[in-house]
Design a protein that fits this description.
236 residues, alpha/beta, Rossmann fold, 41% helix, Class_I_gatase-like, INH-QAR, DNA binding, Transcriptional regulator GlxA family, contains an amidase domain and an AraC-type DNA-binding HTH domain, DJ-1/PfpI
Amino acid sequence: MTADDTGATTIAVVLYPGLTALDLVGPLQVLAELQRFAPQYRTVVVGAHTEPMSTDLPLQLVADRTFAEVPHPDVLVVPGGRIGTIRAMSDPGVRDYVRTAAASADVVGSVCTGSLILGAVGLLRGRQATTNWFFAGVLEPLGATYHRRRWIEDGNITMSAGVSAGIDWALHLVAELTDEATARRVQLALDYDPRPPFGGIDWIHIPRLPRAMRAAIGLLAPVITAKPERLTRAGA
């Protein structure tokens, strides 16, 4: 890892309109806690501007810094969402920042469908990847191979599955950046000991409607990826 001019190793979390709030806030809480135990790490939220942006909740979020102010973070984290993420896949500002920041970052990470933005700028070709279960079919047109895992690593690119998996992934990232003992301290500080009242997801008996929705998104994958792919081929 390298350090910025303040002596800190910078972790930049990307904010864009319409993203899923927990995709950003969950990992951000873990990474902010890391800063307490390892102050050499500095986590900032970056965006195209520092005005409030909408999310998928009745809640707006504001970036700490603009893309231009944090051009070369050591760690890049791209959260996901639904329609907001699909739009971001073709947004020139988001695309340019993710592509250029990833080129110099030591670690490039995504949460949920944030992996689709990585794929949209050509970073996932030939890689093993994961994303939200509903959007698995969109990864293949972007050149990636989907795996239903809580998180996955391929080279310096690391991704989590859907939404809440971002917290597990962030703890894994903390261990990678520091050590397991520090990650456990962060986990304890956050009292993170999830025990869903109905157990884990029953992947074998997914109800018909969610399965149909997933299939529909898969059928739309060529449409979703068409413009981002054209932009990538054009070098935009």
